[in-house]
Design a protein that fits this description.
435 residues, alpha+beta, 8-stranded mixed sheet, 5-stranded mixed sheet, elongated
Amino acid sequence: MAEINRAVKGTNDILPHAAFGWRALENRLFETAALYGFSEIRIPVFEHTEVFNRSVGDTTDVVQKEMYTFDDKGGRSLTLRPELTAGVIRSIIEHGLVNGALPVKVCYEGGCYRYEKPQAGRLREFHQFGVECVGAAAANADAEVISLARQLLSSIGVEKIALQINSIGCPECRKHYHAALKEYFYKHTDTLCATCNDRLERNPMRILDCKSPICSEIADNAPVVLDFLCDDCAKHFDEVKAHLDSMGIEYTVNPHIVRGLDYYTRTVFEFVSGDIGAQATVCGGGRYDGLISQMGGPSTAALGFAMGLERLMLVLAAQNTALPEEPTCDIFFASMGDKARVKVSEISSMLRDEGFSVQTDICSRGLKAQMKYADKIGAKFTAVIGDNEIETGIIRLKNMKSGEEKELDLNSLTDSLYSILLALSVDELTDAVNN
């Protein structure tokens, strides 16, 4: 019975005091993406399992170990989305967007679900913000998407991040690379983990992404993909770097970046933070030119990225970057008596229509308890309304910070509050500047 009062392991509640900061961060991300022409898309939280098997890749840890898959009452195999790209591409194909004006530029935010060991920055339910750009094959598209990722991180206050890039080539040049990897790793089958020995036959590049210290050490000396790029892929990568250089975006070429999902081709990249320990990647993405045709659509170039919001929150906390706090109540009306409660309802409704944040007593508490509540919620002002205030039409407005009181006419309360709150905002801004 105690389990019903606890969140499922690997999931977190985002409580009201934190949710406002999350919403502010999400709004900033969407606003910044709009500067590059990206519009929001929303997709279902679950898809047919084949959507992920075909796109993410059946040799990946995500498909082999981490997906939440179930049969519905109709016997269909469905899966909670472990990432959003596959579902977004399914939607773009289904609704014919890929046949319209290109490029299609979409952005999104939503929950993802993977069964893995919960730890800092890695949960079983987590949230991603990402973008997909469909129909752009040129190298400057790669640079523009990377530029957007950098500006998104900067817009929310993330500092000290490093961009790492690589090219993992196309299917043709990867054939030669796979052959070289197999030749190298066959010499180490006795020490590779069981998972990597299985990967060796099916997709040896996955070994480069293994988290086992032993496998990682072996992989450090493996052949480098950049040495196997075909002329077209090498040219594309050189052009990406030239565009990044022209935009003043600093980067490091890291030949060991392969990303964790099978659909990537050519350019891959990560933004890495030094503030959150082992889970250092806060944004990752790249190009996936074969994914749309792989999922049944026309052959179309595409690229994108995703960033984990929980990891971003960890980075912001480590950097002592404060998120916006929810505005406090403008005025709390305490009431004394039944007539006063009716009058408070009338006044509160009028003020809310004008955009004021107003709270009242809805728990039938005594006056002292009402004032304690007003203090707890951080109300800027309070006013008590009883029979006397109704008769005279005059209330005493108390500034909860300074203790100063003013008499106000109920009939002109809206105009008076506008002036008082404006003056208070100016005072708060002045204090913030001086401090």
